[in-house]
Amino acid sequence: MQPARVWSVLVVLSMFGCSRPTEASPSVSSKAAPMANPFRVDVSAAPCSLGASCTATVTLTATDGFHINNEYPYKVSIDDAGGLEFSKSDFSKADGDFAIPSKTTGVMTLRYVAKNRGNFRASGTFRLSVCSDDKCLLERPSITLNVPIP
After folding, report:
1. pLDDT at 150 over 50
2. 133: which DSSP letter?
3. DSSP letter (8 states) at residue 16
4. In whole angstroms, what is the distance from residue 65 CA to residue 104 CA?
5. Residue 12 phi, psi dihedral angles, 5° rounding
6. Alpha-helical runs (H) found in the chain
7. Distance separating the N- and C-terminal Cα atoms of the chain
8. Domain ranges of the chain
9. Nearest to 87 by CA among 60, 59, 109, 107
10. b/e for 62-74, b at 16 or more Cβ within 10 A?
11. Label partner for 14 (CA 20 to 30 A): which of 27, 38, 60, 107?
C-alpha cells in the first residue's frame, strides 16, 4: 500500500473507534508448571591425594513417593574426565558399580587416579530410573564432579 492510502485507512478506522494496530503482546500460557523431579542426584568425592586410587559417589535419592527401580541398568558415562584418570569411561550396575542400600537410595561408585595437583572438574551423564506405584521415569541428568588434589 502507498503511504497516503495507509493514512486514509487509519483515518477511516479511527472514525469507527478502531485504533492503530499495535505490536502483538506476549501470550500468557495457562499451562501448569512442570512437576519437580521426584529424585535428587548428589555427586561427591572422598579426600584424595596425588597418585592415589580414589573414589567418588553419585547418590540417587528417590523422593515424593518414588523408589529406586531395581530392574533398571543404571549407568554413568564420563564425557569429560577433566584431567582425572578414571578406571573406565562407563560405570554400571551390570559391572557391580551400582548398589541399592535402601528402597529410595542408589549409589554409583566411580574410581579414578589424579596424576596432577590442582582443582579438577569431570562431567558425565547418569542414566537412572525411579518409580511410583503407577509409573516409572527414565532420566539422563548431567553430573559434575569437582575434585581438589593438594
Report:
1. yes
2. S
3. T
4. 9
5. -65, -45
6. 3-15
7. 73
8. 39-149
9. 109
10. beeebbbbeebeb
11. 27
Residue 132 is predicted with a pLDDT of 97
pLDDT digits (tens, 9 = 90+) for 67-82: 999 999 999 999 999 9
For CA atoms 68, 110, 91, 76, the dihedral sign is positive
Cα–Cα distance for residue pair 48/1, rounded to 1 Å: 74
Query: What pTM, to 2 d.p., does this model score?
Result: 0.76
Phi-psi region of 118 (alpha: psi -120 to 50; beta: other; left: phi over 0): left
How many angstroms separate the CA atoms of 83 and 66, rounded?
36
Q: Which grid cell is 125?
A: 551423564
Domain topology for 39-149: Immunoglobulin-like (2.60.40)
**Burial (0-12, 13-18, 19+ Cβ within 10 Å), 119:** exposed
Residue pointed to by grid coordinates 541399592: 100
The Cα–Cα gap between 115 and 100 comes to: 31
Closest CA to 104 of 35, 36, 34, 40: 40
Amino acid residing at 81 = A
Cα–Cα distance for residue pair 79/2, rounded to 1 Å: 59
Phi then psi for residue 126, to 5 deg, are: -110, 115
